[in-house]
Each structure stands twice: as C-alpha cells, then as structure tokens.
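Dear support,

We are seeing what looks like truncated structure output for some complexes. This example has three components. We would appreciate it if you could run it in full and send us the complete token output so we can diff it against ours.
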Amino acid sequence: MLAKYIARRFLASVVVVLGVTAITLALMKTTSGSYVPGIDLNPALRPDDIARLRADLGLDRPGWQWYATWIWGVLHGDFGHSMIDGSTVMSHIGDRLPNTIELTATAIVIGVLIAIPVGIIGALRHGTKTDHTMTVVSVAGFAVPQFWMGLILILVFSVTLEQHGLPWLPSSGAYSAVNGGDLIDRIEHLILPATVLSFFYISTWSRFIRSSMLEVLSQDYIRTARAKGMSERRVVYLHGLRNALIPLITLIGLELPGLVSGGLVVEVVFGWPGIGKLAFERALQYDYTTVMGVTFFATLLVIAGNLLADVLYGVLDPRIRYGS
Amino acid sequence: MTQPLLEVKDLHTVFKTKEGLVKAVDGVSFELNPGETLGIVGESGCGKSVTALSIMRLQRPGKIVSGQVIFKGQDLTKNTDDEMREIRGKEIAMIFQDPMTSLNPVYRTGWQVAEPLRLHHGWDAKKSLTSAINMLGRVGIPSAAERARDYPHQFSGGMRQRVMIAMGLTTTPAVLIADEPTTALDVTIQAQILDLLRHVNREFGTATMLITHNLGVVAGMCQRTIVMYAGRIVESGPTADVFAHPKHPYTWSLLRSIPRLDADRHEPLKAIEGLPPSLVDLPSGCAFHPRCAFRVERCSRDVPQLMQVGETQRSACWVTQAGGELKGA
Amino acid sequence: MIGPSRVAELETTGAAIDTAEGRPAQSYWNESWQRLRTNPIGMIAGALILIFAVIAILAPVFSAVLTHFQPQSVDLSATFRPPGGAHLLGTDELGRDTLTRLIWGGRVTLGIAFLTVGMALTVGTAFGMAAGYYGGWIDDILMRLVDTVLAIPAIFLFILMSILIHPTPITLAAIIASVGWGSVARLVRGEVLSVKQRDFIMATRSIGARDFRLMFRHLLPNVLPVLIVAASLGVGQIILIEAALDFLGLGIQPPTPSWGNMLTNAESYFFHSVYLVYFPGVMIFVTVLASNVFGNAIRDAFDPRLKT
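Here is the complete output from our reference environment:
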C-alpha cells in the first residue's frame, strides 16, 4: 500500500517537474528566440561570431532538442553552464542558496516563535480587547506590500538614523564587502529583510493558529482533560496545542517554495544575494541554463514541501494513514 | 443513616446568551450515598448534564450563582481552582456521552489512561502505564498491553467507552459521574457498557451518578432516581417506587411514552404533547403545566416545591402534594 | 492569486449551501445579504472600495476639476515639492503632481485587479467544472495541468511572460490570471464534486438534460457563492502581486503611473522626498486592507459558521 502510494506520488512529481521546466523553456524560447545573452553589450561581435556562439550554446537547435539534451544532463547531475559567465549553474545555485536559506530559515523560525504564542493568546482571550487588537494588526499585516515595508524600514533604520548620526542598520547585501562577514556583521544585515519576511509569516500563521486553537479547545477531549484534573496550562499546551499545530505544519510545508519565490521581492529590495534574486536577474538576461536550473530546483522544493507536509501530518496525526 | 458522600444544595447555574439569561440549573438539591447508583433522568436540555458539570466546576461558560456542593466535608463551589484540580479525576471522575470525540486523537490510549496517575499520584511513566494496562484489562479490553499502544481511532465505540471508564477508575475515585455513557453506542454495546458500570460499582464500591434520558437504563441500574425538568428536580425516590407509582405528571407521561413488556397490549403509547420549554422564557408557575394533563388552576400561578409525597418519594406537583392521583387521561 | 492558507479557508465555504431544492434558495441569498448589511466594518470597507473605483473611473474629471494637473505633465521648476499648496500631496522628481498620479495610478491598479479576477474566475470555473463534472481521465489530465501551473514558482512565470509580452494593463492582467486560475479550478472542482453527489443532479440527468444545461443551470448556481467569496478575497492579493511586479519593473511601465511603479522611482529619491515613498504605499495598503476586510465580511455573510 505504502509502496504503491510512493510510486504514484513519484510519478505525479515527475510529470509536474517535466511540465514546469518545459513551460519555462517554451516561454524563454518564445521570448528570446535564438538570442545570445549579452550580445547587445558587445557591438564588436561579428555575425559569424554570433552564429558560432549560438551554436556553442545550442540555441540553433529546436527547443525540444535543447530540452532533451538538458534533461539528459540533469539525469546525470549536470545542469550545464551559465550562458552569461560560463561557470556551472550548480556553482551559482551553491553560492546563492546558503544566503537564501539563512534569510528564509531565520524568518520562518521567528515567524513560528512569535505566531504560535500570539495565536494561542488570541484563542485563550478570544473576544477580549487583546484579541481584537491582535486581529486588527494581523489583518493589516496581510495588506502591507512587502517591498513597501522594506522601503519604509530602509528609510527609517538606514537612511534617517544615518542622517541623524545614530547607529544604523545596513540596507543592502548579506554582509559588508569590506571588513565584513563576521557573525555580528551578518546579523546586522539580516535584521531588516528577516523582519519584513517574518512579519508576513506572523500575520498569516497567528490567525491560523488562533482559529485552529479555538476549534480544538471546544472539542470533547479538552473537556475530558479538564475532568481529569489537569492544569489549564497542561490542557492548552499538551492536549490542545498538538492538535492545533497539525494544520499549521501543512501550511509551513506549502511555504517551502517560498525559499525561492516568496523571498524574491525581499531579496531584490534588500539586495540580498539569494537564489530568488539570481533567478530574477538571469531571467532578464536570457540566461536559459541558469533559469532552467533554478526553476527545476524550485519545483523540487514545491514537491518536497508538499511531501514533507504530508509526512509530518502522518507523524503528528495518527489518524492519517497513506494509501487511501 | 449514613453520611452522604456528595450533597448538592440549592444549586443554581446560569448561562448568559444573546436571548437572555438561561437558568440551566435552578435550585437543585440531592445527595449521593457511598456505593449507590443514582439515576438522573430528563429530556435533553433539562439541566442534568450541567448539574454534573457544575459539581466538577466544569460548567464554563456557565456560572454557578448560588448553592453548595458538599463533598467530604468541603464545599466545592468555594474551592480554589487548584483545590478543584485535586478533586477532578482523583476523587470524582467523569465520563462523557461520545467516546468517539472524548479521547485525544493524537495520544496513545495507554498514555491517556495513565495520565491521571502521573498527575495525581506522581507516579513515573512506567508504573502508571502498568497500572493503566491492568485497569484496561479489568474493564474488559482484550490484550490490553498491546491495545494500550494503539490510538483512540483504532478502537470501536464500545471499546473507547471502556477506555474512558478505565481512565476514570485508575485513581479509584469515590464518585463516578457518567453523562449519557451509552447514548452514542449500539444497543448491544450499550448493554455491555451498563454491565461494566454495574460491575465497577460492585467491585470498586464507586458511587455512580448515571445521567441519561433513557428510562430503561435507570430501571436496570439505579437504586434511586431523580427526574429533572427545565432545570429543576420534579420527582425523586427509590427507582422501583418512582416507576411503579410516579408522583409527578412528567414522570407519569415519560413512563407512558415508552413500550413495556408487561403493559396492556391494547393501550397505545402516548407521546408527551408539546415541546420542552425555552429555558430563557419559562412558563409561569410549574414549568410543566402547559403540557400537563392534570393541571389545575394553581399550576400556572405558583411554583411547586419538591415535597414528600407518599412514603418514599418526593414530588414538585400541586396535584399529588394535595393527595391527587395520576390516573387515566 | 490566493495563497494556500486562503484556499484552506475557502474549501469549507460551500458546505453551508444546502437546500432541499439543490440550488441555493432565494432566502439563502437574502439571509447572506442581511448578514453582510449588519456588519458595519465590512460595509465601510466595501464602501471604500466603491469610492476608490468611482474615483478611478472618473480620473480625467478629477484631474481636470480637482488637481488641475495631468498625470504625465512635467514641471522641472517644481520638483520634490512637499505636500501643500497647488500640489496637495507634493511632486516627484520631474515635478509631476503626486495626487494626480495616484488617482490615475489607482485607475490602472484597480482596473487590472478586477480584470484579473474576472479572467481567473472564468478560466478556473470552466476547468474546475469540466474536471469535476466529467471526472475520469478528463479530471486527471486537467488536474495535473492545474498542479503544474500551481507548482511553477509564480514569480518566474511573471518575469518570463512580461519579457515575452510587453505588459499593458490587459496583458498584465492575463499574466497574473494565468497563475490565479489554478486555485479557482481546484476550488470549483471540489464544490462540483460535492454538489454532484446530491440526488437532484441524478434526477435531472435521468430526465435527459444535456451536459451544458446541467452545468450552467444546476451546477453553476451552486458554485456561485464560493466564487463570489474567492473573488472578493482575491482582489487584495492581486493588487499586492501587481504592485510588486510594477515595482520590479515587470509590470506597467513608466511614464504611465501605477502605485507600484511610483514606488520604484521613489526608492531612488529617498533623500529628496520621503513623501514619494509614503503615499503610493499607503494607497496600496488601504485598498488591499479594505478589500480583505470586505472579502472576509462576504465570507462570513455566506457562511456564518466560519466566522471567528
């Protein structure tokens, strides 16, 4: 049963990966035809040079051939070389991924650490002023454009503080180019983008926990726990929270692709050298191979996120059994 | 005369709703003696469950506005929350109507059954689990040691109710409150659970408060019966007497609405006319008078108190208190 | 157009619609309207959206009568003016009037948002109905397609498509809708599946009703409440996406003003005028907030059980 489930799941994933990469390539082909990246920057190139470059990059071949070659490479662990700078796509992803993980993981951890208590408090004090205030803040948090919040934070904590000669926070990059790179420096750079990203998570997740917790607390087994003489603390945290967290796990699993796409806007605003920014820049430059590599990778993350959510669900909720 | 184990005195519990104040329990008094099984009967919404929850102080969001619940010399309504937690699950255990939803789905049953022991006796995980498994076996769960590792959803409804009962009994409480313990179960399973409760009562000497809307259950289980209507007790007495000679028209109608093997076959069953009253807006006088076949003029005016009627029973009815008989109609 | 959390919220919406006739009874719509009307905050939010929409539609009138400026008229003698005087909300680096540009920008932003919702709902409903109604291999193929669309990191699709198609308001709406329809299709399919279970569909089919008649006369009315809720919650999300695309330079191109691309410029002129950063952001925030609140109010009105 489980084997069959895994097989079906795997097959569906393959279809999705092929579909996504094919659509991406089709779009890029349609967009740029056989355009050689960077030629417009170099007026000295002669037509036969361009033709040679085109052949080197495989751009003279029809899309499906290019795609087949690419897939063949991927199956052998070879994502090819960037069309812009010639270094391997894997090395680009390898360079940028740690930065993205640093930012996103920080934001998710902060998000969870703040959202869970806020959600619980909202549920326990539901109907009170505290609850209403938190509701308003979170509904508002949902409506703030991330890039605008980023701009405002830069304006306040970088520009204004600096203008007044106060200690200010860096607004761009993951670390200082000069004399940077130590822990303090990296944390300083992390604060503003992580704030923006986690703010979004907090407003989503805290609402979610609140309603999930409210529902759980009205269940019969909570009454049973109280009838057994448990402290309110034990009732809420041991008997309630575990049940209330189950749906949140799914939500966080679905957030995993945000590693690449969700953080993109924040990465661009804060000049954060992450994988989303990489994809954004390279797509604008028609770097087929890099974009294909990142797309492939991002799609895997979507699938992995879904899978992870399902597996965790099964671990946390004994009622779930696979195969049905 | 033995000292009662639990004494409820003039208990009032109210709920605030949009429609108004609901007096769910409106001046209820009774006592529970050591080792006895007491039945509380009534239609849904008559306040029997809220009475039980109020004893445990679990009536939230309702509020106990007055009255006393005397248990082992202390008034539970005056206890602090911490003192109350010492009572719940240790001295007074409670099992609920729907065993499907009353167990926590994400914890193993053995762990849940053992929880009161860890909590109230401070036993370690191993000792409490051994005791829990022992108790699961005693309430009739086959291969209890293995089943203790299962999750609630792996049990049938009847087995889950056994688990609930085992969970209540681990700490050998003095009182077991069973709130509609068989309502959600199949008829054959119902009989098994009732057998178990009877067995528990005999073996452990646990005084049992059995709350049900099913008169048949009361007849087979309880020494004494209390009948509730609209938040009040309308009749009480030894079960045999109450069933043989009901002293309140409500009890009388209830008994006529269920089929009996020994009854005259030609006599049709009679449903009670009308609907239970809204607790927000109770009828004047006796709450039952609009549905009562015996009502006299006074019934719509004055509220009857629960008084001795006959040798063993008490009734809150102007007609029987004045010596009237409930016959025919 | 709708994140996973939103979809989870929506999936339970349809359950409330259960009437003996099999389609939402008239009283159901009336009751929903009654509930909406008695929700003051929701009504205020709805009114705000309506006001913004009217201002957007009448933008030429406003710039002629109220601000006396055109959105693209440059005045290099009056750059970076602070709010006040002739320029109520100040001017930008080319001396263009901020208020005028906000009004015209709202026209673009709101127009795109409503257009996108319309497109996503139309395509998503068609796919969802077909998948749910026919089932079998048609369902399999359509739903794998939806999975694929939803698995593409949306922002890549936006980037690539806006390079491919020169973004005008209409093409931009199409680009955003090309991702948004997926979640609508899922929603509609689920709803159709549950409606299909009910007896009246079998009864209708047994008297020989055609597929199309069945879908449009019987299934669509049942799916409608879910669609309305999805639409009202979707507007805010789309405004955010559109603004982000504009900001990244992938959306509406200058000099045509949009709230998003006004901020792209503002970023470069922090030191000259902070107002350029404030106003467009506040407009986005208020509009999205209003449409989310209104969307929630509509959801609560259609399904009071979901109210939290």
